[in-house]
Write a structure and sequence with these properties.
402 residues, alpha/beta, Rossmann fold, Helicase, Ruva Protein, domain 3, 3 domains, five-stranded parallel β-sheet, three-stranded antiparallel β-sheet, 8 strands, 50% helix, binds adenosine-5'-diphosphate, binds magnesium ion
């Protein structure tokens, strides 16, 4: 008898087409809805190609977290470098994350590594390093585009020497070739207030503001990232919509990519080739927050029973949303078993509205008039299995055993 663990594992078909394409550092070929920003950057940096070393660009990029600032600048760097190479120009972008390289000193070392990979991490003064940078720029035929990402971290620590120096390094070189440009990425422009007036005015000349994606844009972007990383038909339109709804409030695409990765892992661990709504709920929240326990504890038995029906129908049907009519059958049955009178339709409507106010469910009303009133009920971010168990337990404490 042989143990073919590896053969088995290797033969198992994965839901992933290419897992690395969901990685935070992956730069996709396309960035839907950031074309405008890419084109704006290209216009600003065009002079570096047209009149090499005659201009020094300083650009500031701003906008909320997770809306593609970093990835857009990274893709732009690649495009710029390629265009320069085509023309035998040496333009080199250096991306630095100021959250990682906390100090001016460390950032300068990182920049200098471009010229000398073995530059020691200590032993020099900040001024020494700045001097090295100037010498290197003078002696080589390169134009550096220094990208200071998460710039707020540097400014927040009262360590602005570098920014001050980098914005001036060219200014003292009248008629000399200009060898350095700067792109700063900052979430909140108010950080700039801490800088000296002339640095502010230099940086503020070109600001590109990234606005958050709309709901439809989020869905499309996630759809695209799924297309390149996950096998076909594993995510349905409904499951993509569900993820979009979960992340919509913060509009952070990174959260969406995490959910895609985690829910796909969960599906895979169950040997499934598609992702179910429940996989997404579990991916989004391993644990039920304390607040939900608290909310449920104070609901009346009648409300809990109705909520339980909703949970059961979502869970059993493996659906991401159900209508009230769909739930009613299970609800009547449940009431019958418990020997309780079912609540009236309009009473249940009131319950639904209360559940929504408490953020236990999402309600989307399709048609408004009372008679044909139709609404979809969703539970987005709580795993149903856990929710069900909690409701069972609370009902049990009230003497209702299901
Ligand atoms: N338009 C887009 N198309 C594809 N992926 C995107 C897009 N915008 C953002 N992303 C992805 O979302 C994640 C967060 O983007 P990022 O650039 O890190 O945001 P920020 O720097 O604004 O916080 C990254 O993994 C990025 O690849
Ligand atoms: Mg970023």
């Amino acid at each position: 008898m042989s143990y073919d663990y590896f053969e088995d594992l290797l033969n198992q078909q994965s839901v992933f087409k290419d897992e690395s394409k969901l990685d935070i550092n992956f730069i996709p070929e396309k960035l839907p809805y950031r074309e405008k920003e890419l084109s704006l950057l290209s216009q600003l940096f065009l002079s570096l190609l047209k009149n090499p070393n005659k201009t020094s660009r300083k650009v500031l990029i701003t906008g909320k977290t997770g809306i593609g600032k970093t990835v857009t600048v990274k893709l732009f760097s690649r495009i710029l470098k390629q265009a320069a190479e085509k023309r035998n120009l040496n333009i080199n972008p250096i991306h630095i994350n100021c959250r990682k390289e906390r100090t001016s000193y460390k950032i300068l070392v990182k920049i200098l590594q471009f010229f000398n990979p073995n530059i020691p991490n200590r032993g020099y003064s900040f001024q020494d390093l700045l001097g090295f940078l100037e010498i290197n720029l003078n002696n080589t035929n390169v134009h550096l585009v220094i990208i200071l990402d998460e710039l707020g971290y540097l400014i927040g620590q009262n360590d602005e020497d570098l920014l001050y120096s980098l914005t001036r390094i060219n200014d003292e070189r009248y008629n000399e070739p200009l060898k350095l440009s700067l792109i700063g990425i900052i979430r909140d422009l108010t950080y700039l207030d801490k800088l000296d007036v002339s640095t502010i005015s230099t940086l503020q000349r070109n600001i590109i503001k990234f606005s958050p994606y709309s709901f439809d844009q989020i869905s499309e972007i996630l759809g695209y990232r799924i297309e390149v990383s996950i096998i076909e038909n594993a995510f349905s339109e409904e499951t993509i919509e569900m993820i979009s709804k979960i992340i919509w409030r913060n509009a952070d695409i990174r959260h969406g990519l995490d959910l895609i990765w985690k829910s796909a892992k969960i599906a895979e661990s169950k040997n499934r080739r598609y992702i179910s709504p429940e996989d997404i709920r579990i991916a989004n929240q391993g644990l039920i927050p304390f607040s939900i326990h608290e909310k449920l504890k104070y609901l009346s038995s009648a409300k809990l029973i109705f909520l339980l029906s909703i949970v059961r129908q979502l869970k059993n049907g493996n659906k991401n949303k159900v209508t009230i009519n769909y739930v009613l059958e299970d609800y009547s049955l449940l009431c019958e078993n418990l020997e309780r009178t079912p609540k009236s339709y309009s009473q249940l409507w009131n319950y639904l509205q209360e559940f929504e106010r408490e953020d236990l469910i999402n309600l989307s009303i399709v048609s408004g008039n009372i008679i044909g009133r139709k609404a979809f009920i969703e539970i987005l971010d709580t795993p149903l299995l856990k929710l069900k168990k909690i409701i069972y337990n609370i009902l049990k404490t009230k003497g209702i055993i299901i």
